[in-house]
Automatic annotation (TrEMBL):
Keyword DNA damage appears in the UniProt entry: no
Record keyword Aminoacyl-tRNA synthetase present: no
Catalysed reactions listed for this entry: L-proline(in) + Na(+)(in) = L-proline(out) + Na(+)(out)
Lineage summary: Bacteria, Pseudomonadati, Bacteroidota, Cytophagia, Cytophagales
Keywords, ordered alphabetically: Cell membrane, Ion transport, Membrane, Sodium, Sodium transport, Symport, Transmembrane, Transmembrane helix, Transport
Chain ranges passing through the membrane: 6-25, 45-74, 80-99, 123-144, 164-187, 199-220, 264-286, 307-332, 364-388, 409-428, 434-452, 464-486, 492-513, 558-580, 586-604
Family: Belongs to the sodium:solute symporter (SSF) (TC 2.A.21) family.
Name assigned to this protein: Sodium:solute symporter family protein
Localization annotation: Cell membrane
Primary residence: membrane
Membrane topology of the entry: Multi-pass membrane protein
The organism of origin for this protein: Splendidivirga corallicola
Length: 612
């Protein structure tokens, strides 16, 4: 595809603008680590919420979402429960408050706050750093795979090359260039740069989403959609089987469904729900979402920021996803059928852009999708180096290091992590396989230890260390081992085995060692105030202060979580119904959204003014 000079000019101006912001904010960001990684806890919560939403609007995720919407129709709204997508609701309702009360800079520091600084606490601290670095490398590989596929369709210059005996394809070269630009502005501007550019990027992305939705709504009729898809494609609800047969439409999609492993849809959703509860209670993984929570001014603003993220993210994002999916279904079917089994369905999004977006808007849309990639990538590479610099170098090697040296080492750490992630990206498989590995296997190993840390007083640093170690070993060893006996099984079905292994390691590590120091536990419980099994610690605190009260908000929190998940789901399905012109279902979704919003306003938001 040859882009017009207008489209290329829009893209170039966008890239220059992001670099300018990074260099402009570099002086403010380089004062110290708090400024570089948390913005000095001075950024408004609504700016952080927009930034967080922009960080979750990644291009690889959009490409994957367009693919599953194209194939699975309305049922694709359930598939992001793999993450689970509604973990943000748990964070919004209570976990952001608990986490921000710590006053620390990183997730690893938070672990020291929970378990103390004795041997068990140090081991748990180190294992969190290791997990954070592994997950960042995995996500960089995921981004590398997605942005390369995307860019190569639009930029037709042949940039394939050979470097040190390694053959680098054009998509990989494009990915390297875009990653290099993102890394430069992130290094220079730190967290200030990330937030400022992400707000700018979010505006571009939202405009792009509306443009796509308007084009799709004007070009497509309900009859065209019905003729292009099999029975049950437009049905949100499901039974035991998926019940989608593409044989008469696009036969290759039946093979794709079999490869994805989503044919047994009922059991899949049950496993997603089971995994999702554990993963959500565990709290944010040590990445950009946690960074934004810790960068807010206070616990109340941390909760508001986390609540704003899904509110501004999902409706525009799914306008774009559904718009491109239905455009491709109606107008690209002959081209897709012609490619047969050779079709790479993850390129549906860029193919639709080439075909349906007019000159001028193509540049805007591509800038918006580049912004989606750059925002997410920048968030990761700004959040990750603090674990190397603050939690390893400063803590164990050079506690008296100057701010200038620490910021300089942060630059080097970012570059090193990006390079390692790129190396893994060269050997990555499809976006779907990477998504399933990260969500089901890697994050599956994170769940058990990080649920117990909140709710059980006896759980100690050794238990956390061995639980996380068991999870990491399980997520690495169990998937290939189980596939020897059950070829083709997808990672989500392996999650229970990883969870059981991790829980066993947690229990053994905890009971073979002594409890944490009571003073450490009292400080954590008094300051964080979680609900759960804390009776011995609570009784000690009441002896010291008879006015101390336990957290009795479990039932209220769970009700808000259930309503919040429904609230978020409406923002996913309403754009889908709108663009297939099922107006009755759209207005039912809108009614549920309004009612659930009112409920959350009264039962969650209004109560935040009392949170400290």
């Amino acid at each position: 595809m040859q882009l017009s000079w207008i489209d290329l000019a829009v893209i170039v101006l966008y890239l220059i603008g992001t670099l300018f912001v990074g260099f402009w904010l570099s002086k403010r960001a380089s004062k110290n680590l708090e400024s570089y990684f948390l913005g000095g806890n001075s950024i408004k919560w609504y700016f952080l919420g927009l930034s967080n939403a922009s960080g979750m609007f990644d291009i690889s995720g959009v490409m994957w979402s367009v693919t599953i919407c194209f194939i699975y129709g309305l049922k694709s709204a359930w598939i992001p429960w793999l993450w689970p997508v509604w973990n943000q609701i748990f964070v919004m309702v209570f976990l952001a408050i608990w986490m921000r009360r710590s006053g620390v800079m990183t997730g690893a520091q938070w672990i020291t706050f929970r378990f103390g600084d004795e041997q068990g606490g140090k081991l748990s601290h180190i294992i969190v750093v290791i997990f954070a670095l592994i997950s960042v490398v995995g996500f960089i590989a995921y981004f590398f795979e997605g942005i390369g596929k995307f860019a190569a369709i639009f930029f037709q210059w042949d940039l394939s090359m050979s470097f040190l005996g390694i053959e680098i394809s054009s998509p990989q070269t494009y990915a390297l260039v875009i990653i290099a630009i993102t890394t430069i502005y992130t290094l220079k501007g730190g967290f200030y740069s990330v937030v400022a550019t992400e707000i700018f990027q979010f505006v571009i992305m939202t405009i792009s989403c509306i443009v796509v939705a308007v084009i799709a709504y004007r070009l497509i009729t309900p009859v065209q959609v019905q003729e292009a898809v099999p029975d049950n494609w437009g049905n949100l609800f499901f039974g035991w089987q998926l019940e989608l047969d593409w044989s008469d439409k696009i036969p290759a999609l039946n093979d794709k469904i079999a490869t994805d492993g989503f044919g047994l849809f009922g059991p899949l959703i049950m496993l997603m729900l089971f995994k999702g509860i554990f993963s959500s209670l565990a709290g944010p993984v040590p990445s950009y979402d946690m960074q934004r929570i810790l960068s807010t001014k206070n616990p109340s603003e941390a909760a508001k920021m986390s609540g704003l993220t899904p509110l501004v993210l999902f409706f525009p994002r799914y306008l774009m996803i559904a718009g491109f999916a239905v455009l491709a279904l109606v107008f690209l079917r002959p081209e897709i059928i012609a490619q047969g089994s050779n079709m790479d369905f993850e390129t549906v999004l860029p193919l639709a852009i080439k075909r349906f977006i007019p000159i001028g808007f193509q540049g805007l849309l591509l800038a918006g999708l580049l912004a989606a990639f750059m925002g997410t990538f920048a968030a990761f590479i700004n959040a990750a180096p603090v674990y190397l610099v603050n939690d390893l170098y400063k803590k164990y090697i050079n506690p008296k290091a100057s701010d200038k040296k620490l910021v300089s080492y942060s630059y080097l750490s970012s570059i090193a992590l990006v390079l390692i992630g790129i190396v893994f990206g060269f050997f990555a498989g499809s976006l779907n396989s990477l998504t399933l590995w990260i969500t089901a296997s890697l994050y599956g190993g994170y769940a058990a230890a990080n649920v117990l840390k909140w709710i059980w007083w006896r759980f100690n640093g050794y238990g956390y260390f061995f639980g996380m170690l068991g999870g990491l070993i399980g997520s690495t060893v169990l998937p290939p081992s189980i596939r020897l006996w059950f070829p083709g099984v997808i990672d989500i079905y392996i999650f229970p085995a990883i969870l059981v292994m991790s829980i066993a390691f947690c229990i053994v590590g905890t009971y073979l060692t002594k409890p944490e120091n009571m003073e450490t536990l009292k400080k954590f419980y008094r300051q964080t105030r979680p609900w759960g099994f804390w009776k011995p610690v609570y009784e000690e605190l009441v002896r010291e202060d008879p006015k101390f009260r336990r957290n009795n908000e479990f039932k209220q929190n769970m009700v808000n979580v259930v309503v919040g998940i429904i609230w978020q789901m409406t923002m996913v399905i309403m754009p889908m119904y709108l663009l297939i012109k099922d107006h009755q279902s759209f207005f039912i979704g809108l009614f549920i959204f309004v009612v659930s919003s009112i409920f959350l306003k009264m039962n969650w938001y209004n109560r935040l003014k009392h949170v400290k």
